[in-house]
Amino acid sequence: MLANYFKIAWRNVVSNPLFSAINIVGLAIGLACCIIITLFVRYETSFDQHWKSPDDVYRVTRDFYGNNLRLAAIAPPIAPLLGEDFEEIEEITRIMPSGNLPIDVGDRQFRETELAIADGNFLTFFGIELIEGDPATALDNPSSIVLTEAAAQRYFGNENPIGKQMLLSGQTTMTVVGLMADLPANTHMHFELLISIQVVPTMLGPTELQSWGRNIYFTYLRLPPGYDPAALESRFPDFLTKHQGEDAPSQLGLNLQKITDIHLRSQRDGEWTDNGNITSVYTFSAVALVVLLIACINFMNLTTARSTKRAREVGIRKVVGATRQQLIVQFLGESVLLTALAMLLALALVEITLPAFAAFLEVPLVLPFSDPRLSLQLLAGVALVGIVAGSYPAFYLSQFRPAEVLKGGTAAGGSALLRKLLVVFQFATSIALLIATGVVVAQTHYARNIELGYERSHNLISQIPFSSDIWTTYEPMKAELEAHPDIESVVLSSRVPGMTNVDGSGFIAEEVQFTRENSMGISDIMVDYQWFDHYEIRFLAGRPFRENERRIEYPSDEKLITKGAMVMNESAARRFGWSPSEAVGKIVFELTSDDGSSYIEREVVGVIEDIHFSSLHDQIKATIFVEQHPRRRRMLSIKIAPGDPGAAISHFETVWKKILPDEPVHWEFLDDRFDALYRNEERQAQMFATFAAFAIFVATLGLFGLASFTTERRTKEIGVRKVMGASVTDIVLLLTADFTRLVLLANLIAWPVAFYFMRSWLTGFAYQAPFASWAWLFLASGIAALVVAWLTIAVQASGAARARPVLALRYE
C-alpha cells in the first residue's frame, strides 16, 4: 500500500509541474535558511562549553557606579583576596591579554597580538592538555612560555619548539616549555602564547599586582557543583568594605558571570573580544522559521486552492472503499515527498552558499555530512515540515463527501478566508523584514555621519612599543614626520577615538572634604598638548594644554604631592557641579595611591564640548584629559593631507625603521577602526535584507501560483466580460483588486509590529537615528510589496485577458 501511495504521489508531482516547482523551490529556500541559521545558532550557543566543568565556572566582573563603567576585567589583587576570604571558592585564576608586543626569534622580528599572561594554575583550571610539557608546572617559571601549534609553526616552522628561546619586548628571554593545540574558535578567550604572571613585576612594575586601579585581569573562579552564585555575590559588598573602606559598596560592585553566558549575554566595557548577541540569535532564528513558514503556507494555499482538481479523485476513492484515514496518509505522503525533494535542493543550496555565509559572518560553519546524527535530523526535518505543510490540505481534502463531489456540488477551492489570511501573513512578514532592514541601515548611516565633535578623517594610527623610551622615541619621530609636506600634525595619546575607554582614576574637587570616600571615579585619557588642535575639538571655556604642561613630575616616595593641569569635557564639569566657565581655574586632586596619601593637584585649564569618543552604543562619559604617562598606551595619531596618502605612509615607514630599527612597522587608518565599530550592524542589515528577499521571493511564488489558479477558475467569466466590451486593463484591474486589498491589510499589520520591534532594537544605542529619518520606510516597504504583488498578478491576468473570448467560452 505504501508503494501505491508513493506511486500516486509521484504521478501528482509530475503531472502538475508548475504547482510542484513552486512548492519545491519555496520549501527548499525555507529549509536552506533554517539549516544555515541552525548551524549558526549551534555555533553561537556552543561557546566555552568545552572547558573543564563549564557549568561551575564564573567570571568576576567589576562595576563603577559613578561613571557607569561595567568592566569585564578586574584588578589583580582581588583574585587572591577572594580566594582567602571565601572558602566555597574551589579555585581561582587570572589571565591578561598583553596587547601588541615585539618578539625576537634569532634575527627575525615579530609583532605579537595574541600573547597572554596567566596564573600558574590557568591550564589545569580550564582542563587544557599539552601536546608536549606538563600543564601543572608549565607556568611556574617566569621565563617559561607555552605556544599553540599555530604560534609554533609561525615562529619555528616544522622544528620542535620545546627548549627554543624567544626575546620578549627586547628585554625578557623566554624558553618554550609547552605546546598546546590551537584554541577552538568558539571561546571568548583568544591567545596563542602564554607566559607566567610571575613576569609581571619585571615587565610592568613591582606594584602592578597590588594595584586596585589596573582593571585588566580577567578573573575566573570555580564553585562547587550546584552552588548558587547569588549566595556568593550577596557577600561581595562586605568584601569590598573590608578591603576598600565603608563607602566602597556604594561606589563599586563585583559580580559573577557564568562563563558559558559570556559570548551571547555580555557586552561589558573591555571585553576580550567582540561578543555575539543573544537577541541577534533569537532574531535570525525567528526570521529563518518565518521564511520556512511562508513556504509551508504556500503549500497549504496552493493545495487547498486546487482542491477542485482533486475533489472527484477523492469522491471516487471513497466510493470504492477508501477511508478518510487512508486519504489523509496519502495526502501527507505527497507533502512529505515534495518536502524530501525540497530538502535535496536545500542541501545543494546550503553547500553552494555556506562558504560565503560563513565568511560574511566570520565564523567557521560547515555542514557535517560525516556526522550520523545529521541524517536523522534531516529526516526528522522532512517529516516535520511535510506534516506541518500538508496537514491542513490533507484534513480538508479528505473530508469531501462522495455524493456531493460526484454531483459537482462541493464548494471549490477550500476556505477562501483562510487563504486570504495566510497571504496577509506572508506579506505582513515580508514588509516587516523590509522595514527592519531599512531601520538598521538608517541607524548605521546615522552613526557613521553624526557630528562626533572632532575630525577623524585622514588619520593614520600606530603605537610606540613599550620596549622603547616614550620621549626619546616620540619627539624625534614627531619632528621628522611633521617635516614632510603631506603630514600636517602628529600627536600622542593613551587612546584614540573609536577605542572603548576603560581607564580611570579617583578625583576629588577642592571644595569637598579630602577623603578617599569622596573621590569620584572618572574616565581619563592621556594626551599630548597639541591633541585637541589635531582633532579640531572645540573648547567651551579655557584653553588646551601648553607645551610646558606636556610632562609633569609624578608623585613618588620622596615627593607625595605634585602639581599639574587638566582639561575636562562638559559631562565631567557637570559631575563636579560646575558650568564650563565655572570649572576653569578650579583645583581637582587626582589620587595616585589607594590610601590617598599621594596625589596630583591639578588646575582645570579648559573644558571641551562632549565628543563621541567611542561608538554610539555608549553614552558619552565624563572624561578628564591629562598629560601623557610613560606607562600608559602610546598611540600615535598622524594627520595626512587630503589626496593620495602613499607618500606620507612611505615616509612614516622610513622614519619608523630609522628610529625603531628593531620593531616591525605597523599602522592603520582611523576610519577603518570606526568601520569596525558598526560591523555587526552592517551584518544585521545585510542579513535582514537577504532574509527579506527570500521571504518576498517565496511569498511571490505563492502569489504567482494563486494568481494562476484564480485566473484559471475565472476563465469563462473573463471571456464573457470581454464579449461585453471589457478591455485588457479592466480585466487586469479586476483580478488584482482582491490581492491589492490583502497587501494593504498586510501593511496595516506589519507597520505597528515592525515599529515596536525596531524601537526595541534601537534601545541598544545611546544615540538613535531620529524617527523622521526612517519613517518613510513604512510607506516605501508597503509600496514595494504592492508593486511586487501587482507585477506578479499582472503577468497572469494580462495573459488571460488577451486570450480570444471564444476559447474562454468553450472552457469547461
Protein architecture, described:
It is elongated, with a radius of gyration of 34 Å. Residues 410-414 have low confidence and may be disordered. Helix 25 (728-762) packs antiparallel against helix 26 (776-802). The strands form 3 sheets. Strands 1, 2, 3, 4, 5, 6, 7, 8, 9, 10, 11, 12 and 13 form a 13-stranded mixed beta sheet that branches. A 6-stranded mixed beta barrel has the order 16-17-22-19-21-20. The chain starts with a helix and ends with a helix. The chain is built from 27 helices and 24 strands. Helices cover 48% and strands 17% of the residues.
Q: What is the overall shape?
A: elongated
Rg calc: 34 Å
Classify the beta-strand content into a percent band.
Answer: 15-25%
Q: Assign a percent range to the helix content.
A: 40-55%
What structural category arises from helix and sheet content?
alpha+beta
Count of helical segments? 27
Overall pLDDT? 84
CA(first)-CA(last) distance: 34 Å
Low-confidence segments, ≥5 residues, pLDDT <50? Answer: 410-414
Number of strands: 24
Largest sheet: 13 strands, mixed
